[in-house]
Automatic annotation (TrEMBL):
Its EC number is 1.11.1.6. Residues 36-424 form the Catalase core domain. CDD domains: GATase1_catalase. Decomposes hydrogen peroxide into water and oxygen; serves to protect cells from the toxic effects of hydrogen peroxide. Its cofactor is heme. Belongs to the catalase family. HPII subfamily. This is Catalase. Gene3D superfamilies: 1.20.1370.20, 3.40.50.880, Catalase core domain. It catalyses: 2 H2O2 = O2 + 2 H2O. It comes from the Bacteria. InterPro entries: Catalase (IPR018028), Catalase_AS (IPR024708), Catalase_clade2 (IPR024712), Catalase_clade2_helical (IPR043156), Catalase_core (IPR011614), Catalase_haem_BS (IPR002226), Catalase_immune_responsive (IPR010582), Catalase_large_C (IPR041399). PANTHER family: CATALASE (PTHR42821), CATALASE-B (PTHR42821:SF1).
Length: 701
């Protein structure tokens, strides 16, 4: 029986059209388009395959069915071999300070220049469907559609890298990804293969410090820095080169979560980071970063303790300050995840005139890898024709044909020179030229001498952290190595840490219960132990000054004080804080004024790990009800254990007790909220983000 026999039904307060088998549709309006095949043929029935009789066999001639299934079967493309899980957004870049003295790049030339941008953030090791808060590096890839072509700055949220030479990249990636026989662990470095490779490759040690720090578990993409990592060159109109390192500094300040929290967020909301970006942009709270540059010359490069071509080293901001020259604003989410976020193809080779490469062996290797990988991933050489990848400036060339060619040269000439006077010509004035660096040398497979210092900056990173952050680093090493089944590998890592910081090494050894302390790993170059601490390397020294854009979870029940709730909403709004009400039922609660206030979440689906701080304002009866609910108990206990600020109303005490908070545990991070004016004080306190003093009291092991 065909679907043209439709009836109208009402479900709830909405009216639908229903076919004979119960499939329910929107009621077609005048402007509802007709469903067609890919050939534009109108479809009469999309519910039933063509059959010989209602209960008979399906017919091969049903081309609509075949086309639909064929297309579905081909929906997947290979996921990225690294950075498979990512999330993108559109925005713009605006130049706020001209670098015209240093570079001919127009995007960096005239103050006020604005170009469209697309940014894709990612994790590295996990598959496309893995979770957001893995302990991992985050990709921070920026595509600027400039008037001189696309400039891709394909960076990370960490300014250094695991390895120095691109030839080691496949080994490093194989080691960190799931082990090839078992196929696990997914999206984690906490396994033997990774630590085996890392402990046998001392060049990884500086990066290990960063990924064991809270940098690897950011609170959101919005609250992390980005780095171009390599030293690039800027080249000006006279052909003079200046070295440059690129930085993205978040206006929102830096913030991370704690490890136990990350583990729980991954279960409660595997999409935590992408949801945060989506929601902030769609609510009009546009994340913003400043573009910073560290500019330096050969004189600095020659006297610097390390090689500027070595991607496992950074240049402390105290030595070369970061000059802020622009801003990147993300103000539009994608229309289609696949078309934009999945198909966007970043290539480190995409630079514009006035920006050039250095001989960093990691960068040189990347320039091959990205083009190669996009060709495979997107199915051929014409991936640049996909709208998200196409430049927004005019482009003309004689490249033609290939799979899915969307634009071919027009007319007779598909080569040059030609005598038909047709087609584009090269332009020696505006065209891209490599930097005219003098190059000579014997062919060899070696690295620069200074590349061999693997510990000095690792130590500098560690000594630059606050005691809280140092503890987190130690705990992360202990956690990861405790998942490592081979004791010899654990000891090898500790042997490296002895060259970084003895206290750290001892703390890790103790945490692992290592019976015998290994000897320090032999260093290829004597580490410099006197590098001064550098404040920009710490997250906690660079936190936000406001609670803006952060999320407050508020536990409410029937009978919650309406005045207290109103005061909370007002104080939060003034600060730009997002409030989510968590209740026994998502339909909401009746507050003391008799109004039904809808909730954002039911308690079972909203653990406190999803919030930056929490408020407990149940009524007395509500608190009694929630003491019998395990997820409410966890809500309180976790907020306490994760050193969060907790505001509590007059009737919340039984809930605090149920969450394991004894009267002796009450500290300055747990704030009574009695009068509406207390709410403003509470929100102001939350600007500190965490009450770190509590942490030591909650982690005895
Ligand atoms: Fe890479 C993707 C960042 C070293 C080879 N890389 C990729 C992405 C980012 C980075 C952010 C995701 C881009 C996106 O969102 O689509 N990669 C880095 C940084 C590195 C680095 C900051 C060191 C400083 N990468 C690196 C090396 C190689 C690669 C040494 C190979 C020799 N990277 C790739 C790749 C990927 C990639 C295989 C996978 C998917 C893709 O390119 O588009 O070509």
């Amino acid at each position: 029986m065909s679907t043209d026999k439709r009836t109208t039904v009402t479900i709830g307060d909405q009216t639908f059209e229903r076919g004979p088998q119960g499939a329910t549709h929107q009621v077609a309006k005048g402007d509802t388009p007709t469903l067609t095949t890919q050939q534009g043929l109108a479809v009469s029935d999309d519910q039933n395959t063509e059959k010989a009789g209602a209960r008979g066999p399906a017919l091969l001639e049903d081309f609509h069915f075949r086309e639909k299934i064929f297309h579905f079967d081909h929906e997947r493309i290979p996921e990225r071999v690294v950075h498979a899980r990512g999330y993108g957004a559109h925005g713009f870049f605006e130049l706020t300070d001209s670098l015209a003295d240093y570079t001919t790049a127009k995007v960096l030339g005239k103050k006020g220049t604005r170009v469209p941008a697309f940014v894709r953030f990612s994790t590295v090791a996990g598959a496309r469907g893995s979770f957001d808060i893995a302990r991992d590096v985050r990709g921070f890839a920026v595509k600027l559609y400039t008037e001189e072509g696309n400039w891709d700055l394909v960076g990370n949220n960490i300014p250094v890298f695991f390895i120095q030479d691109a030839i080691k990249f496949p080994d490093m990636v194989h080691a960190v990804k799931e082990e090839p026989d078992s196929g696990f662990p997914q999206a984690q470095s906490a396994h033997d293969n990774f630590w085996d490779f890392a402990s046998l490759s001392p060049e990884t040690v500086h990066m290990l410090m960063w990924i064991m720090s809270d940098r690897a578990i950011p609170r959101s993409f919005r609250f992390m820095e980005g780095f171009g990592v390599h030293t690039f060159r800027l080249v000006n109109a006279e052909g003079k080169s200046t070295y440059v390192k690129f930085h993205w500094k978040p206006k929102q300040g830096l913030q991370s979560v704690v490890w136990n929290e990350a583990v729980k967020i991954n279960g409660a909301d595997p999409d935590f980071h992408r949801r945060d970006l989506w929601e902030s942009i769609n609510s009009g709270d546009f994340p913003e970063w400043e573009l910073g540059v560290q500019l330096f010359d050969d004189e600095f490069a020659d006297k610097f303790d390390f090689d500027i071509l070595d991607a496992t080293k950074l240049i402390p901001e105290e030595l070369i300050p970061v000059r802020r020259i622009g801003r990147l604003v993300l103000n539009r989410t994608v229309d289609n995840f696949f078309a934009e976020t999945e198909q966007v193809a970043f290539c480190t080779q995409n630079v514009v005139p006035g920006i050039a490469f250095t001989n960093d062996p990691l960068l040189q290797g990347r320039n091959f890898s990205y083009l190669d990988t996009q060709t495979k991933r997107l199915g051929g050489p014409n991936f640049t024709h996909i709208p998200i990848n196409a430049p927004k400036c005019p482009f003309h060339n004689f490249q033609q044909d290939g799979h899915m060619a969307m634009h071919n040269p027009k007319g007779r000439a598909n080569y040059e020179p030609n005598s038909w006077g047709m087609g584009p010509r090269e332009n020696p004035q505006t065209g891209y030229k490599p930097y005219a660096e003098e190059v000579n040398g014997r062919k060899t497979r070696e690295r620069g001498e200074l590349f061999a210092d693997h510990y000095s900056q690792a130590r500098q990173f560690y000594t630059s952290q606050t005691p809280t952050e140092q503890t987190h680093i130690k705990n992360a090493f202990v956690f990861e190595l405790s998942k490592c089944l081979t004791p010899a590998i654990r000891a090898r890592v500790v042997a490296h840490l002895l060259n970084v910081d003895e206290k750290l090494a001892k703390g890790v050894a103790e945490g692992l219960r290592l019976e015998k302390m290994p000897a320090p790993a032999p260093a290829a170059r004597t580490p410099l132990t006197d590098l001064p601490a550098s404040n920009p390397l710490s997250i906690l020294k660079n936190g936000p000054k406001t609670f803006t854009g952060r999320k407050l979870g508020v536990l409410v029940t029937d009978g919650t004080d309406a005045d207290l709730l109103a005061a909370l909403m007002k104080a939060a709004e003034a600060e730009g804080t997002i409030v989510e009400l968590v209740a026994p039922a998502v339909g909401g609660v009746k507050t003391t004024d008799g109004k039904l206030v809808p909730a954002g979440q039911k308690i079972v689906g909203a653990p406190s790990v999803l919030y930056d701080a929490v408020v407990l304002i149940p009524s007395a009866a509500g608190a009694k009800l929630l003491t019998g609910e395990a997820t409410a108990r966890d809500f309180v206990a976790d907020a306490f254990a994760h050193a969060k600020f907790i505001g509590y109303g007059p009737d919340a005490k039984p809930l605090l007790a149920k969450g394991g908070i004894t009267p002796e545990d009450m500290d300055d991070g747990i704030i009574p909220l009695e009068a509406p004016s207390d709410l403003k004080t509470f929100i102001t306190l939350c600007r500190k983000l965490r009450f770190w003093d509590r942490e030591a009291r909650t982690h005895a092991v």
